[in-house]
Amino acid sequence: MTDQLLRPTGSVAPDALAHVRDDFPILERTVRDGKPLVYLDSGATSQRPIPVIDAEQEYVTGHNAAVHRGAHQLAEEATDRYEGAREKIARFIGAGRVEEVVFTKNATEAINLIAYGMGNAGYLNGTEPTLTGAGRFRLGPGDEVVVTEMEHHANLVPWQELCRRTGATLRWFGVTDDFRLDLSDLDEIITPRTKVVAFTHQSNVLGTINPVQVLVAAARRVGAITVLDACQSVPHQSVDVAALGVDFAAFSGHKMLGPSGIGVLYGRYELLADLPPFLTGGSMIEQVFMDRSTYAAPPARFEAGVPMTSQAIGLGAAVDYLSDLGMDVVAGHEAEITGYALQELGAMPGVRIIGPADLVDRGSAVSFLVDGIHAHDIGQILDDEGVQVRVGHHCAWPLHRRYKIAATVRASFYLYNTLDEVDALVAAVKSGQRFFGVG
Prior knowledge:
By secondary structure, the chain is an alpha/beta fold. It folds into two domains: about 20-45 and about 325-435, Aspartate Aminotransferase, domain 1, CATH 3.90.1150; about 55-325, Aspartate Aminotransferase, domain 2, CATH 3.40.640. It is about 35% helix and about 15% strand. The protein is built from 13 helices and 17 strands. It has a seven-stranded mixed β-sheet with strand order 4-10-9-8-7-5-6, with helices on both faces. The protein has a four-stranded antiparallel β-sheet with strand order 13-14-17-16, covered by helices on one side. Strand 1 and strand 2 form a beta hairpin. The chain is globular and about 70 Å long. The model is unreliable at about 1-15 (pLDDT under 50).
């Protein structure tokens, strides 16, 4: 990092971010007997700026109606705003068509949508007129699904269950001692038996950014489908799904300044057009008879029932907010904050960072251990000082087992964090070491 990071206080953020904290009212509050809030848990959920809050309120108070149903004015206004949000998100991630964006409740549901859709392909008899290409998704004994050891549970358990239901085999890439994906056995893991390669873009624990194009190229060589877990990348850097060449990608709104209860599944249209539905019912149909139904084209096929309208509109506003700042600016600011945190925590006696120690192919989640203090105990000390972090296995239990760690402390940064807040984190860790007599 540059020597700018040696400065203990004062932001070096670009002008575009100079007043960004003013848009987040929650950051002004105090916690734990008047301590200033230091929010370092954006990897779990981010805070919402005023424009996002206003967008939801404006919709609910002025335009609320069921989308894609009524013929009255409110229904038209609601539908226009809902589909407008889809268009914004499609542009934001570089989707080739608006119809390639499917709204889900969260990334977990998006990944389950793919896994259950593939599982459902095995039950079709080939006569469904709107699913004539579904056979490409069938799995059975002898087929393999490939994941990595650094997945969080949302991109692991659905594939375990798909393999259990179909008789396919789950395989995975390990991780190296220096916290990178181990691709030394790439051609032994991804083979002609591989049907799906599902992997995280950026580890929610290690911060490691994986080589997407290497994995996509290997999957393409054997005709496998790729699924990118983009929960920790889309909020923090410019992500172009078409340029990356992935077949599917999933991310959540609440990690990128948007509301909870809204997520996105991106899928190449020709694949979505052949994928059987996950949930069935209203709005996802083409025709319904008493003994059978045919299904609508994507994305409606995957959005059964009345959708999460205000949440989608709020996510659209979040995308506007991030786009106005510029994702390169956001990524640059986070790199500065993260580099400073790695420098300061890495220099502390008794503190061990669990993840890459530099900024090469790494994001803004910084997990660490403090010798002699359980992660939950140091988390409580930090909380007492007003510093909000996450402790535990971060829904990545196998990864923690790999490194023989029960739990870690994770500080995860976003565009509204400052160098001063890193100093507050470091001071709180030192306070914990003094309290437990280990520093």
